[in-house]
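Propose amino acids for all 408 sites.
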């Protein structure tokens, strides 16, 4: 059974970007009281105190992953026709020269000789909220790849809002580098505009979901490319990637096997504690997966697209059907890691091939060369004083019968 988890931070992603007041005379989210001062060069009437954001403000690994998966190189700037007048507008982020605050808004396009218009959407102290990035949601679309999942794959942003669906303009998405917040903004013109008060941006919620197909495609492409530090040549890397990817992908079609995952932490407050254990059985037609974290336990049983869950393995509750489309099939076990070493050896009478990888974690992959299936995977991830070791062991030809709930 392939159980899919929602991102644990998704509950935070819909949090609004809170507004801050950059000066006593200005109000974020409203057109400026003095529409003329610096109107053609800045989001504020205090251009001398602010600067445009640059790549230096977006140097974190989170923003590097954002660039990779969205294909955009400028999280501080996005272009589009946000107000529907046929002219290109610029959404941008600015930072005060003291390095304490940021602001995001739109500089509207104009015809030659026409007045300049701008709109401040949001802003915040850098100490309390990380700097925002922006990307354009084109007219006619309600979703696009907008971010990343823990730097491991793309995330799709979807705006499910009637006004957005009916719009005839581009819209704007904004978020930080994790992301811990996200929002969508749509321009609504004033019915009877007068002077500079032409309308306002309204906010909508954004739903984020991992793009598993995109994640698999990126991981496979990353795995093929030689890396600085590889202990093997380019041709050998490609051959190893093919061999190990085929072995791990073969699990999707393997029956009568068991995988056991255990995770333990060293250092910090949780030193020595086993934090998680997952045991999965698969017979010819069903799968049964048990998750244990401390004293908590939950069991999932799957037969085709039918899924049930239970806390004790006896009283079952039906869950929504799952066609398996969200499974991580095709995800490369190597990805963008460096192959530091490869060796062949014998383990319990089996010929195995061992691959050592270095990336976000130090990883060991063990392949049963005769069966052409995984035998073991060990990931060691160190963050500060804490080291987490996750080990998965695979067993085959396991005889187990899995029976769906009565009446299923």
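Proposal:
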């Amino acid at each position: 059974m392939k159980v899919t988890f929602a991102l644990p931070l998704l509950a935070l992603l819909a949090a609004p970007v809170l507004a801050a007041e950059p000066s006593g005379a200005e109000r974020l989210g409203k057109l400026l009281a003095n529409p003329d001062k610096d109107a053609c060069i800045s989001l504020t009437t205090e251009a001398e105190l602010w600067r445009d954001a640059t790549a230096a403000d977006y140097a974190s690994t989170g923003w590097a992953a954002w660039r990779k998966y969205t294909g955009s190189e400028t999280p501080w700037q996005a272009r589009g026709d946000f107000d529907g007048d046929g002219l290109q507008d610029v959404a941008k982020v600015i930072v005060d020269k003291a390095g304490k605050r940021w602001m995001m808004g739109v500089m509207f396009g104009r015809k030659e000789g026409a007045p300049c218009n701008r709109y401040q959407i949001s802003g915040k102290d850098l100490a309390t909220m990380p700097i925002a990035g922006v990307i354009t949601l084109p007219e006619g679309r309600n979703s696009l790849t907008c971010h990343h999942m823990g730097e491991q794959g793309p995330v799709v942003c979807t705006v499910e809002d009637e006004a957005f669906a009916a719009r005839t303009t581009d819209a704007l998405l904004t978020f930080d580098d994790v992301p811990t917040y996200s929002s969508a903004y749509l321009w609504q013109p004033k019915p009877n505009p007068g002077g500079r008060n032409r309308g306002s941006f309204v906010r909508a919620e954004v739903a984020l979901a991992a793009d598993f197909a995109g994640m698999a495609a990126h991981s496979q492409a990353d795995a093929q490319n030689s890396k600085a530090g590889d202990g093997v040549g380019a041709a050998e890397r490609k051959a190893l990637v093919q061999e190990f990817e085929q072995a791990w992908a073969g699990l999707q079609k393997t029956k009568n096997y068991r995988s056991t995952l255990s995770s333990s932490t060293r250092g910090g407050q949780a030193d020595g504690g086993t934090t998680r254990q997952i045991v999965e059985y698969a017979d010819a037609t069903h799968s049964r997966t048990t998750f244990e974290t401390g004293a908590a336990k939950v069991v999932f049983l799957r037969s085709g697209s039918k899924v049930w869950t239970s806390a004790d393995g006896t009283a079952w509750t039906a869950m929504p059907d799952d066609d398996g489309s969200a499974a991580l099939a095709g995800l490369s076990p190597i990805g963008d890691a460096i192959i530091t070493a490869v060796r062949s050896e014998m383990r319990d009478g089996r010929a195995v091939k061992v691959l050592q990888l270095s990336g976000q974690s130090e990883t060991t992959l063990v392949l049963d060369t005769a069966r052409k299936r995984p035998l073991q995977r060990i990931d060691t991830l160190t963050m500060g004083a804490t080291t987490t070791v996750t080990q998965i062991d695979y067993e085959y030809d396991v005889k187990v019968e899995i029976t769906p709930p009565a009446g299923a």
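The domain at 227-396 is CATH 2.50.20 (outer membrane lipoprotein receptor (LolB), chain A). The chain has two domains: 10-210, 227-396.
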